[in-house]
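Supplementary material to the annual report.
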Amino acid sequence: MNVAVLASGSGTNLQALIDSAARGELGPARLAAVGVNVPDCRAFARAQAAGIATFVVDHRQYAVRDEFDRALVAAMEPHEIDLVVLAGFMRLLGPSFLGRYGGRVINIHPALLPAFPGVHAQRQAAAYGVKLSGCTVHFVEAGVDSGPVIAQAAVPVRDDDDEASLAARILVEEHRLLPSVVRALAEGRVTADGRRVRVIESWPSGESLRTM
Amino acid sequence: MNVAVLASGSGTNLQALIDSAARGELGPARLAAVGVNVPDCRAFARAQAAGIATFVVDHRQYAVRDEFDRALVAAMEPHEIDLVVLAGFMRLLGPSFLGRYGGRVINIHPALLPAFPGVHAQRQAAAYGVKLSGCTVHFVEAGVDSGPVIAQAAVPVRDDDDEASLAARILVEEHRLLPSVVRALAEGRVTADGRRVRVIESWPSGESLRTM
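Predicted assembly:
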């Protein structure tokens, strides 16, 4: 299974995938290409350092979003991509992209969706005062962070947390959750019935997490 | 600290409080009165069986919500209530009630707020397809399930869950969380800074819960 990772920034989730692949923990998933929309972002450098094919589609060069989408599709075509992973990719994808890759695009979001969709999810969570937050891997549909949920992980929000400390704690879980989902998808262990997504051989589910 | 519990239905959270009190686990909190708006509900019988003072304010006898609120306040006055616990109380409370007891009213909601507010939270969660849900104890303000969060507990949503099985799993956590919050409030261990609520001697917070 050829995987493309799209990123915009520091690329720590990309790095988690690279490291998982190096440890042989992505199963049949192969990191075939990394695309970025910010030419000099850290994610681009990480991909190059790992010897993964890269492409840049700079959104600032496209006046219309659909043109950006089409350019992204064109850049991906040579890599025969089976799964697209959005890992800190800060652009919304429209019909031209989702029409081509729909159902095979996943995103990781730093909140327990449907709580705190959109940007600055960790800031939203800290401001709301929740006691638990976390991250969500979900299929991407046309809405913002509203597609079917594949996996979630929770972390406590501590009394002295600010946006940065909460984001760091959530990121630890992101780096665990995303590779495990990519592997499950590559191994054909993910099935969907409407919005209910089932992952075969799921994690033991007897745990609970309580925080005051 | 005199606690009034308001309930409408089966009263299992009320029972959890009664059982905690019997085990001496509510600290200085005393279950002083139980009020119901449904005369023959199971919660009423549980309170009577436990020897707790009861009152009924039947919402169907009041054409205007504010009259219901005033009747509720009048029924509570003799019990010198310091804390009001909504435990499956299915009526919204308005200014006449919150003006009297505002800041000292808590509610338990069967979801990880701000996800799935309002009625049928477990059904909403099952339909959305989240992998984690849980319960929230929060201060009651004028909005629906939007007040500052005091405590939350998470449980996994399993592949074969329906509304009932998920509700049952969440209920186990509700029965643990609510008494612990009542005790913390009674012991003066809860402070609030805007929406950020701090509970002194909080639970160990190193845990995480991941589910796919």
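Chain B touches chain A through 46 residues (CB under 8 Å).
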